[in-house]
Amino acid sequence: MRADDLSEDVIEIARKIVKEGPICDNCLGRQIAKISSGLSNEERGKILKEVLRTKGVKIEEGKCWVCNCLFENLERWVSKALEKLKEYEFDSFLVGTKVSGMLLENEEQIWEISGASYAEPLKAELNREVGKRIERRTGKRADFEMPEVVVILNLWTEKVELQVNPVFIYGRYRKFKKGLPQTRWFCRECMGRGCEKCNFTGKMYAESVEELVKGSVLAEFKGGDMVLHGCGREDIDARMLGSGRPFVVEIKEPRRRKVDLQMLEEKVKEENEGKIEVTGLQYVKREMVAKIKNAKADKTYKVEVELKTKVLETHLKNALNKLIGTVIEQRTPIRVMHRRADLVRKRKVYDARLVSFDFEEQICVIEIKCNGGLYIKELISGDEGRTKPSLSELLGTGAEVKELDVMDVELK
């Protein structure tokens, strides 16, 4: 943009603005930011002032009435931002601004004068100019879609705040210990506050898969907190074996973002020997959380069952064969009615085979593959007729699960 390119309308707008008092080149030039490209607002403002001077317009010097000389102090904001950022590992960032009430009023006033047709918001220019300087000083890139860190210039408090976006890691966990919930289970009596029933821990169980993983992960990422998002969950008295259960951990406010995940797998295993281990860790994006939470999965279980009366092996095998390919209608089990809606769910059994059978003890081990969401204990017992058909019904005798292990969770 050259002086000759300016229309009389634009020059008249500039004339009205400078009559309001001293104004910096940035704030003046920002009012015509949409007219031309290739120049900074500061350069546009200088050109406008030169044109006005040639027309005999007096330009008052002094503190800018719009931004209060904010753009003269950009390096101060950059220094504050760099001081905050030095504690964090990141490759991408974005700058945002919380504009103070005074600046908002001043901007509204200047837009009333200029009409705002060609203007750019103050905070847009401030974000860009500070961002360019941070890029030059750090070698990091500005990312307008998924920045790892957002630098917030708070003009109210004159402080820099950071919004550090989480790190997400996908993997599978194996749980070798019974009585270990997937996530923290708050005490039902005190709801986490602490009471005699929970020994003032606020929890029903001393530890969980989430808490065990968190202890290893947060130390490496130097994060503020961690949440485990699981693809379903196994019963608390069931082990998770075989290939393990898919999960995503969300590490909040991490100071480190690049950790050797193979090393992390080994650390989790070493620190939680005999309890849990994690495998197949890989960095993923936020979208993976929703994918895991909403995923449809087929599951394979190994079940130890006690039969209440004498049953022949052939009779048992015939009953299992009848379950294969059958759609099970299952009303919400009695044992979970206190926390689940009373519905009838339909789930399919793909396979049911006998692994071993002790005729004298009437103890059998069965492997079952089915839709996720099928309650296996009730598939065996019948749950007082709430699950149909059931192994108990097909055998004509009581059947009870003594041991339950999840062997595979197969994502569709």
Throw out a few tags for this protein.
Alpha-Beta Plaits; ten-stranded mixed sheet; alpha+beta; four-stranded mixed sheet; 412 residues; THUMP fold; 14 strands; single chain
State the end-to-end CA separation: 58 Å
Largest sheet: 10 strands, mixed
Fourth-level CATH superfamily of the largest domain: THUMP superfamily
- The best one-word shape is elongated
Give me the CATH architecture of the largest domain, please: 2-Layer Sandwich
**Unreliable stretches:** none
As a percent range, the share of helical residues equals 25-40%
Q: Helix and strand string, N-terminal first?
A: HHHHEHHEEEEHEEHEHEHEEEHEHE
Structure description:
This protein is α+β, with helices and mostly antiparallel strands. The chain folds into three domains: 3-164, THUMP superfamily (THUMP fold); 167-175 and 207-293, 2-Layer Sandwich (Alpha-Beta Plaits); 297-411, Alpha-Beta Plaits (2-Layer Sandwich), CATH 3.30.70. It is 31% helix and 28% strand. The chain contains twelve helices and 14 strands. The protein has helices at 8-18, 25-30, 41-54, 74-85, 101-114, 122-138, 209-221, 261-271, 287-293, 313-323, 376-381, 391-395, and strands at residues 92-98, 141-142, 149-154, 159-164, 167-175, 225-230, 239-252, 276-284, 297-307, 327-331, 344-358, 363-371, 387-388, 399-411. The strands form two sheets. Strands 5, 6, 7, 8, 9, 10, 11, 12, 13 and 14 form a ten-stranded mixed beta sheet that branches. A hairpin with a 4-residue loop joins strand 3 and strand 4. Helix 7 crosses helix 8 (261-271). The radius of gyration is 33 Å and the shape is elongated.
